[in-house]
Amino acid sequence: MTELLQQLVDGIGRGSIYALLALGIAVIFGVMHLVNFAHGELITVSAYVGYGLFTLGLHWWALVPAILASSMLTALGIEFAAFRWVRNSSDFTMVLTSFGVHFVVQALFIMGVSANRRAFARPSWLFETVSVGGVNLEVYDLVVIGVTLLTLAGTVWLVRRTMFGMTLRAAADDFEAARLMGVRSNRVIRGAFVLSGALAGVAAVFWLMRTGQADPTAGLTPMLKGVLAALIGGLGSLGGAVVGGLALGLVEVLLISRLPDGVVGLTDGMVFLCIALLFVFRPQGIVTIRRAERV
Amino acid sequence: MSGDPVRHVLGPILGSVALFGLLVGGALAYTATGGAARDDLVTQMLINGIMVVGIGVYVGNTGVMSFGHIGFGAIAGYTFAVLAISPERKAQIIPDAPFGLADVSLPPAVAVLVAIGVTLVAAVVIGLGLTRSGARTGAISAAVITLALLFVVHEVARNWTDLTGGGRSGISFSLGNKLEGRTWIYVLLFASILVARLFRQTRIGRLAQAAREDDLAARAVGIDPATQQMVALALSVVIVAVGSALRVYALGVITPRFFFFEYTLITLAMLIVGGRNSVTGALLGVVVMTIGLEAMRYVAGPDVNVAALDWLLRDGLTGIFLGGAMLGFMIFRSSGLLDDWELDAWLRRRRRRRRSARPDAAPPAGELPPPQVNSLATSDVTVDFGGFRALEGAHVEVRGDEVVGLIGPNGAGKTTLLNVMGGVVTPTSGRCIAAGRDLTGASAHAVARGGLVRTFQNLRLFGSLTVQENVEAAALMAERHRAERPGPDVESLLRGVGIWEHRHRRARELDYGNARRLELVRAAAARPDFLLLDEPTSGMSDAESLEMIDRVRTTAAAVGAGVLVIDHDLNFIIGICDRVFTLDQGKIIAVGTPAEIQANPLVQAAYLGSDLRTPGET
Amino acid sequence: MGFDIDAVLAADLNDCAPAPTGDPLKIGFAADLSDLGGFADAPASQAAGYFIDLINCTGGVNGTPLELTIQNIEGDPDVTQRAAQDLLDAGVSAILGPPFPDFGFPLLQVTAGQVPVLFVASTEPTLSDPAQLAFLVAFDDTAQASAAAEFALDQGWTTAATFSSPGPYFGYNPEIFTEVFEAGGGTVIADYNYVPIEDVDFSSQANEMANLDAPPDVVYSAMLAFQAAILRGQLDGVGVETRFLITDAFEATGGYAEGEAVEGFYHTTHSFPAPGSRVVILDEGFEATTGAALENPSFGGLAADAIAMVIDAFLRTGSHDPAVIGAAIAEAQGVEGVTGVLSYPGGSGSPEKPVYVHQVVDGQPSLAATIG
């Protein structure tokens, strides 16, 4: 029982970061039907910003706003440089565009910094643990879960209570109709990118606290987790993305402790396989993807 | 139309020979003028050519996004390597190989055949999954399923160390025991090009392309893309398997990374840069990307030294080129350099253009099929969307020799009723029976094969196919699935609506009126018993829509089909219909001749305030 | 006259002997500079260039100048083969190779036993094959993991836990460690799986370890430094007190930049930077010349070792012919290098060298033991 509770907490801690990443991917998918495989680049950029400022001697708390700001700006910049121009193209075109962005950003860091990883220190409280009734709670996990809840609450407020949120939801619901009704597509899409950048920024802060590493492929793993979580949640659904993130975190923790030796490395593959099976056998269950084309 | 050997067989063969000749000629000229590193480059380029042509057979013909072909390549590559590496070598690197594979030693050619077989099994499984998920152009489900394949294969390869040697060292041939010379590569590259080119012209290839252009419209004329996609996948996977085995043989080693993300994206970049809908384009993309990447490697290499540009001319330059090429082409030219250009097709078009175009002759009076005595009837059709009742007990009947109109105010349920008949919407209750067959709830393509063919309110043509190919796609389906029923040939259909002279233009280049006419004859080419026309005159001028009355009647008569037509243009409805059904709020409120309907007070009430007027009345 | 490595290291690049004019001895370096292997090959290629400048500054090798050509293999097997062929076309007498076998094997397929290949930073035993003129310059994983196990036994540690992942390096090192450790009377009480390079959260494994009856005396793994740091932090968090012994990946992937998090760690490595040692002289000289220190002095030293091996073979044979040089390298005995003295014991392509065990003390390496 204690063990299960322990894994529950571990899983939710992990899953919170995935949820933030997935939410950012879902927001973008909602407004422009793009599966953004360049979402991880926001983490990569954040990592280098963090590393750069840290080497200048700044404290971790000073890095947080810088990382958030740079992540949002990068999201906006990528939208401006790449995604804006393929907005009404096929899904195929948009997905490949996002891979193009991935290659360019990665190469820029190889060129400008180095292919080698750069380390910076983690915050001192990172690994502190409190024990409650036999369950070890990492302070980090508690902070992650708390901040994630706050971020989600903020996002819910934004989406439900503001004009921007309403247009965002309208666009996610039916982009063409929303545009016909006068939603300013430029503004909505830019706003969506800033939102996804902010969410990725929060995730980046936590991710980097743990890894303390900057390298050109730093964003690859978080991107993969985010995409997997968003897929579990149905891609366009914001609530689904959060659920997907938490589910992915829990599944990983459960698999790692239960899988026999030698197949732990198959975790991502197994999750991917399950998602593929979901797409094969219950395509109608994944609502937003299969919203029937109007005939 | 399948009896056009120049277009379907000879042209592609000559085109393949020319393409292969150009590619190999250029490559030989390049290797003749430099060191042995150029040989390596050419070998790799030609192998990548096979891979990309193979991927193009699937992606190009079906339009389905695949990130999984390199995953199939990994399966083939490992199968080949495990079977072809000598037992002595295996004793060193994978002594514990399962299934007694450590002692197996096959000649490379046999190992390739086994690899193809194993990969095909995987392809069938994935293919069934793709079909089940509704793979079509732009379907994200297909991207996810294929990506899952890539990841699963990669992780299995990384972790099943007994068989694969694991993550970084992989399995390798003994030194010197790898592919030397390019004879096999030439032969297999030529074979791949030829197969890819010929496949595009086969019945299956052409139907796949139609479905690529518009899945829904293809189904509406009776094309079920599942079969075509499966065949295209199998064929493309065979070519990819061959290419992968060659790649492993040429490298002398395989590790999981060699067939993963980066290679997937490099090959996809090659495909899209050249143009995924053309074999020539695929190869051009391979050449362009190879030259570009090699040029970047040279510029960033030790032979170029510009101190001031040192920061730029460094590691990462090839990544910038690869990503930049993907971005640039996606943004500025997502159909690639060549789109669907092929040499022989281009020459044929030029030759034709020089011949003066003869004006359309009068539509030849093709032998009329026997008049149909069938009828199409829906009975008590009710459709609920969530809480909204779109149709309630709707009953419509059309005889095989009449034109029937269906009118009603906006939101009355007209298109929903058409969707029920067309197999797009399954009714909550009620039946749809055509020519004695119950088609209720049948899938769209089964409905079309059963003799009910529809058009679409918002025009769904196979945009990049020519006018003639659009109609041929439907005719190909009819030849197979409506064989018992005669029908007019493609030429007389096209002449009948006056667009024969446009037959070689792409459908998307047609003006609106001609596009509507094309959609009409494409539906007719499927030899329907009944044509269901959804607003065939929307967007047309008054003169055009009056003319359309004639077109519809002659075309329907030519195939011997009854017609059910929805339209807002009452002049058109009154002019064309023998009888008219009126829908309001999901219920049929009146049936009768056009004159009776105009006089019906219920109809007038339903149209309250709108322009239900007799033609000519002011 | 032979080759005096100390004189070379002491050379002043601002005050060189007249440039040697003989037929140059060409050495190629197929270096992995845009990928993970860059951690070794970036400093190695810089050091190689500097070392060759020093040699030429002292008048070359008996009047023969050295020429170094660096080709980036870009973490791509196709490019690796082209880069190797470019080097062969340029007429090199020997090639320095990248650290990982997935590019090492394609490289060997091109050189096909005609040109000697010295893998500067690789510890992969399967890459060494004198019959194909393929050599390691560093000790191999068998030596490294055995040394770690001996060290652990010497310390009186009797229980260990390993973190591993199937396959070479990440799996092979723990496997050999377990073998030797248990043969010497120790017990490996648990082996935990993880995903190398990617995993950033070990709380599951940490909690499992917390449930052990007693924590192991030492955790052995071939993890990257940052992963080891995270693991340590999480183990601390759940109150598992143990020691850490990591392979050479620790220093290679920036272990000393991890600060407090890795204080007290032990790791195996290729050289100890004792004041006045050749590794330090090379590193300091490089820094004085270029203004920046080598990212990793050990790999710089190994690159210089590889060049010293080629020079030794050249001096013994007087030949530029790669096959002749390769055959001579296979018989190298007692070659003075920067990280130590190198010999290939009969028929092996892995050098006999000491394995250094460092402990991180106050963020600096401190020599804990020299094995072998």
Describe this structure in words.
The complex is a heterotrimer of chains A (295), B (618) and C (372). Chain A is mainly alpha-helical and 295 residues long. Chain A has one domain (2-111, 134-285): Orthogonal Bundle (ABC transporter involved in vitamin B12 uptake, BtuC). Chain A is 71% helix and 4% strand. In chain A, helix 2 packs parallel to helix 4 (91-112) and helix 2 (39-55) crosses helix 8 (185-211). The longest helix of chain A is centred in the first third of the chain and has 31 residues, at 2-32. Chain A is globular. The model of chain A is unreliable at 287-295 (pLDDT under 50). Chain B has 618 residues and is of the alpha/beta class. Chain B has two domains: 5-256, no CATH class; 375-606, Rossmann fold (3-Layer(aba) Sandwich), CATH 3.40.50. Helices cover 55% and strands 11% of the residues of chain B. Chain B is built from 24 helices and twelve strands. Chain B is elongated. In chain C, the strands form three sheets. In chain C, strands 7-6-8-9-10-13-14 form a seven-stranded mixed beta sheet, sandwiched between helices. Chains in contact: A-B, A-C, B-C. At the B-C interface, helix 2 and helix 13 of B face strand 2, helix 3 and helix 4 of C.
List the helices and strands and how they pair.
The complex is a heterotrimer of chains A (295), B (618) and C (372).
Chain A: H1 2-32, H2 39-55, H3 60-81, H4 91-112, E1 118-119, E2 129-132, E3 135-138, H5 139-161, H6 163-173, H7 175-180, H8 185-211, E4 213-214, H9 220-232, H10 238-258, H11 267-281
Chain B: H1 5-32, H2 36-62, H3 69-84, H4 87-93, H5 108-132, H6 140-159, H7 161-164, E1 171-172, H8 183-201, H9 203-213, H10 215-220, H11 225-251, E2 253-254, H12 261-274, H13 279-300, H14 317-332, H15 343-354, E3 375-385, E4 388-399, E5 403-407, H16 414-421, E6 429-434, E7 437-438, H17 444-449, E8 452-454, H18 467-481, H19 490-496, H20 512-525, E9 530-534, H21 542-559, E10 562-566, H22 570-576, E11 579-584, E12 587-592, H23 594-599, H24 601-606
Parallel strand pairs in B: 5-10, 5-11, 8-9, 9-10
Antiparallel strand pairs in B: 1-2, 3-4, 3-6, 6-7, 11-12
Chain C: H1 5-9, E1 25-31, H2 38-57, E2 66-72, H3 77-89, E3 94-97, H4 101-111, E4 117-119, E5 134-136, H5 141-154, E6 159-164, H6 172-183, E7 187-193, H7 203-210, E8 218-221, H8 225-237, E9 243-246, H9 249-252, E10 266-269, H10 278-290, H11 297-317, H12 322-330, E11 335-336, E12 341-342, E13 355-361, E14 364-371
Parallel strand pairs in C: 1-2, 1-3, 3-4, 4-5, 6-7, 6-8, 8-9, 9-10
Antiparallel strand pairs in C: 10-13, 11-12, 13-14
Helix pairs in contact in C: 2-11, 3-4, 5-6, 10-11, 11-12
